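ok here's the first one, seq then struct tokens
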Amino acid sequence: MKILIIGGGNMGATFAESFLSAHIIRPNDLTILESNETRAEQLRRQLHATVECQPDHYISQHNLLVLAVKPQDAPNLYEAIRPYLHPEQLVLSIMAGVRMDTIEAGLGAQKIVRSMPNLPAQVGMGMTAFTARPEVTRQELIAVQNLLSTTGRAIYFEDEQMIDAATAISGSGPAYVFFFMEAMINAATELGFNESQAELLVWQTFTGAMHLHNKNNLSCGEWIKRVASKGGTTEAAVNVFKGGALGETIEQGIYAAFRRAVELGR
């Protein structure tokens, strides 16, 4: 498979590195289209892959095109690359909020896969949701899943609306985690810890909790019960969270993110 990644920003470079590190493709089977010449030169040195700065006939020689530009740049991208596409090419979009029918209208392509990765893909711990048009064959879908899995985990959904829902959960989710961690760090400094001590306490607590969860089959609620002994310190904190409707507030925030994802898709 020859792959063209269009857009050499953080996520485009992450996918390129992941594909190469997993040895799914060879460097001479990977091309990156990056219009910024300074960034293009950085990518050439970093990845030892072919990096082009302008669209041309080489586009038609690739089996898979990965659209890794910002959504607002998509209309200009469609106009620039459409003359070089052919019907058998597979298009994988990692553009947030851009629906498959919009991509079809812009490119004239039908074999389209839409995905929503998240930031931890940069360290191989990403969570990517994806869906596809009916024209994408099962074999092509498996190939795409293998590619996406090089950045972490990938899950397929038949209903495209679930990509918007996944955007609100896993796509935006790392920011929710960092928000909660930041609040804990602020509380720790107010309790007298210096900043480095506060960060270590919080970061290791989150890391340890996730490892603990991954080693067992207990639900989050069951873990809370194990930590929160009756009349103890944890129960006191959890009671405050419940009294302030923290859980409901988090759910409302996620629904707001989902509604915004749907709006952007329109």
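and now the second one, same deal
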Amino acid sequence: MLRTVRATRYVTPLREGGGLPAIVEADDLGLYVLKFRGAGQGPLALVAELVAGEIGRALDLPVPEIVFIEVDAALGRNEPDQEIRDLLRASTGLNLGLDYLPGSVMFDPAAGDRATADFASLAVWFDAFVTNVDRTPHNPNLLLWHKSPWLIDHGAALYFHHDWPSLDRVALSPFTAIRNHILLPWAATLPDAAAQLRQMLNEGLFTRILAEVPEDWLAHIPADDPRAGYLRFLSGRLEASPIFTGEAIRARAAI
């Protein structure tokens, strides 16, 4: 189960991220990157962050710990920036946070950063599985911390939930956006990655992760049982592994 902490101090905004995330200190004295439910992307971005991130962690991929963060109305009351004060007021209640990795830097091939074939293949398969369109050279969402890679920012995954009728079509899609993945050039062992990760996923795991999603984050989804819809999507996506794995292999061959 995800831990719940309470934000006690607003440290600084991270203006390079969508939704104006921030570094906050919590009552466990830890620092977290706080993703706001009141941001422009709305709570569905937090659903994607939670579900995709926890699947990544279940696959033993390097995803920072994910926690729920309670935001009190008094947090940031002395913040001079009106935009930040409005965001904090709109986000009172339960939000999502990721463990802050101090001193980390963004992965940058232009600076000589490289990935191993095994890690790149695992990350590419995972992102194709959760339909994450946002790990590209323009926005790597891949940090190097103590010289090891960490996968962050999964709010753009599971994009079908912004167009609920597309659920089954997206679940079975080859996910052609994988051609833009920043790690694709190094993903030389995709068949092995697919075989390894596919056997680690099942409906029981998906059900446990989906049970963590707060009810009010799902309130605006046009479905009687959103969790059942997400489960149908993830189960269908698992069955579609040969389709999107093959697409990733073809995309890499075309580089």
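notes on #2: The radius of gyration is 18 Å. The first helix runs from residue 43 to 58.
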